[in-house]
Design goal:
Elements (H helix, E strand, L loop, with lengths): L5 E2 L4 E2 L18 E7 L2 E10 L3 E6 L8 E5 L5 E10 L2 E6 L5 H5 L17 E6 L2 E10 L3 E6 L8 E5 L6 E9 L2 E6 L5 H12 L7
Antiparallel strand pairs: 1-2, 3-4, 3-6, 4-5, 5-8, 6-7, 7-8, 9-10, 9-12, 10-11, 11-14, 12-13, 13-14
Length: about 210
């Protein structure tokens, strides 16, 4: 099925007579980081503007392939998307199912906004004072990661992450639970660096440029 292009001047599909900006207004204030989910993985994106019919997103690298994707906001809300237009690292999408501006604009009340986490499974070696410990990440953010370790680690224990993709990152154990632990990085990633690292880990060709 051929999709109509979203006219981002008024946030509506092209060629629909009788509709204007009062029907589907743009909201520039919605610029925020989010997660773009595709068959190739989960990627950091920035929501540029949005209406009840569609959204414009920007990535920090080439966009993943495919027309059907999903957008996850930091409050956990997920929206099914259909890509209708792309220009470089930006693309316009149509919402696959109707939504409301109220849902798009609301924050995660009564809970605070969560850090943006990507589900990434990366084998790691953690260098500790007692020796190396094998681990696998379960998710990662700009500030840290959740890992499953072969041996238990102590709270506040310093570690150094060794991986071909994430070499020499210093971190500390923040929490432990059921064999997993949370590591907080000594130096956090910028949003751009986090986005590019995530792309290289999942689909290196997207970050080749």
């Amino acid at each position: 099925m051929q999709l109509a292009a979203i006219d981002m001047r008024n946030g509506l599909p092209d060629g629909e007579p009788g509709l204007d900006q009062r029907t589907a207004p743009r909201f520039f204030a919605l610029i925020r980081s989010a997660k773009l989910i595709s068959a190739q993985g989960e990627f950091v994106c920035v929501v540029r503007d949005v209406s009840v019919t569609g959204v414009r997103l920007r990535c920090f690298h080439a966009l993943p392939r495919g027309s059907a994707m999903a957008l996850e906001l930091q409050n956990g809300d997920v929206f099914e998307l259909e890509r209708v237009r792309q220009e470089g690292e930006e693309a316009s999408f149509r919402f696959a199912t109707p939504t409301t501006i109220e849902r798009l604009m609301q924050e995660a009340e009564p809970f605070p906004r969560r850090p943006l986490r990507l589900s990434l499974a990366i084998p790691l070696t953690l260098r500790t004072p007692a020796g190396p410990v094998a681990a696998v990440t379960q998710n990662m953010s700009q500030q840290g990661c959740r890992v499953e370790t072969a041996l238990p680690l102590a709270l506040a224990q310093p570690v150094v992450i060794d991986s071909p993709h994430l070499p020499g990152i210093r971190a500390k154990v923040r929490w432990r639970r059921d064999g997993d632990c949370g590591l907080v990085f000594d130096d956090t990633f910028s949003l751009r660096d986090f986005a590019i690292h995530a792309a290289r880990l999942q689909c290196p060709s997207l970050a080749a440029g």
